[in-house]
## 1
Amino acid sequence: MKKILLTLCMLPLLIWVQGCAPATYEIEGYTASSMNPDIPVPSNAKLIKIITDSGNRNIKEGVMYELKHIGGEQGLYPPMDYFQKLADTGWVELEEERMGHVHFLKKDTTVIAIEIREDAFEIYEMVKGAME
């Protein structure tokens, strides 16, 4: 009887803890970015805006995509499978340049910055020589 009573008392706690598990995102494949066809983006990410004037002289152009839960809670968890896809297509992360949510990657002579948020991400192409 004590076991049954204990189980019934713990049940609401277990349900609450399960409800607190972080929501996850789902990538359904990849397509070329509308900004640069060499940059893969999740095909189920929704293009929110094109950024032609960011006010930052180091940024050439940018795009913003929405994908629910891509960065985890408060954007604290970068999507490792997305970064693996970028690496598989030739993008190398410049880890020493990382600044919080912003990751810098390079392919040939092109440098991009990817800013990861909870439900969105932005990709910026840097002007030549910006990272030197």
Note: DSSP finds two helices and eight strands in the chain.
## 2
Amino acid sequence: MSRRALLYSKRVLAFITFLAVIYTLIMCNLLFFSGRAPGVNYQYNLVPFETIRPLLLERERYSTEARIKNLFGNIVLFIPLGIWIPWLFHRYRSWFRLTFIVVLILLLVETIQLITRVGSLDVDDIILNTVGAWIGFAGFRLLIGSPRKTRS
């Protein structure tokens, strides 16, 4: 059995699906439930890089922990999205299509956070989360390989 055939075997796909479901449940808990209550003074950010820039440039203003949590946490937590979406759904194996579906998912999450006032709507979260998905997708492409183009 080839490496590619093994990666798409029923057992591997079932395992990836299981991991995707667990990941989704964990992320829903982190984003909407775990220690979160609706905020009275809800804040949101619609200006790109408004929260990223100070975290990168104003080191004395933020602790290392706050910078790592806000920058790298938002990236690292979404790396799996860039792996399991294209693995399970063939149509999302291009950078454009993956980016499109990831941004749609993130807009849904941010909109739910806005409506429920749990967490905060922040365009910078969408940017960082998308970067995480891109890193995951790059890893996926290294593992699986680029899609083969056929000649017509």
Note: DSSP finds seven helices and no strands in the chain.
## 3
Amino acid sequence: MYDRYDGLIFDMDGTLLDTETTHRQAWDRVLTRYGLSFDEQAMIGLNGSPTWRVAEFIIASHQADLDPFQLAAEKTAAVKTMLFDSVRALPLIEVVKAYHGRKPMAVGTGSEHAMADALLQHLHLRHYFDVIVGADDVTRHKPEPDTFLRCAALMGVDAEKCVVFEDADFGLQAAQAAGMAAVDVRLL
């Protein structure tokens, strides 16, 4: 089905792995300490963004005097204690297995590189991917194309010969900006 592409790039959270609920629970746990909350719909709109950017949004919406990087670090720590017990692969992993050894594949995620690597290792999926590009591997994040362009470069594949699998509007915008085909997995 995706044979016409030379490289496959996958978002991780909500695309390959079912992590969204745990991320939201971690945000709730951390924000409760500060008497803050988050708007579920607004959070969905930020899917694919690095954690510190989500923290900036939450802080701004509450006009709170908090450091977004500190808040993001607290949320990341909370996720790490919760995620390994609840994470599971989503059905798209079957596409990964079908193309393993046939096409280079990458994960381009808004999560930190080490977290993506650890989750994929935990689920015995890491060996399927030639490349991981996390939020800490680029300076400009989705919807900018840098994550996916770096994936293509590290795989040695021209950007226009890649297809990106995404579940978030920012990620789909990033794929388009990179000149790549995109599959909105929410429609599969």
Note: DSSP finds eight helices and five strands in the chain.
## 4
Amino acid sequence: MPYINNLSNWQVWSPWEKLDPSIEFTVAKPSAGVGAHLFWQSKWGMGEMTITSISRSSTKFNILFNNEHIVTGALTFTQEQNKTLVSCELNGEVTTPIIGGYLALFSQYILNNTVALGLNNLRTTLQLHIKNSEN
């Protein structure tokens, strides 16, 4: 949970900086818990994210892209034997006329791949953390 509910820790596992070297993040106060807020700016645009709720089974958040596209998201935690499965769901709407459908498909493709990479990075980060804690 500290790697997800504290936005200062997202840079440890988030793939965005490797995918877009121009991106710059600013973590606002509070950096953790409900109301935690993160801003970013890159050559592709800007955005902000706010954690809106936290429970044992999920962390929910809102994202605003370029001051016009709102996305809601959730990282969901499911206990399975001695493991925790983490999944991510993003929901939003593309409001660009005519090319909006193509933009939505392209955005979905990029986000799906980036989210999968991020969840993989999160798993690796936690495995290394556990291994280092045992030594």
Note: Residues 98 and 104 are 11 Å apart (CA to CA).
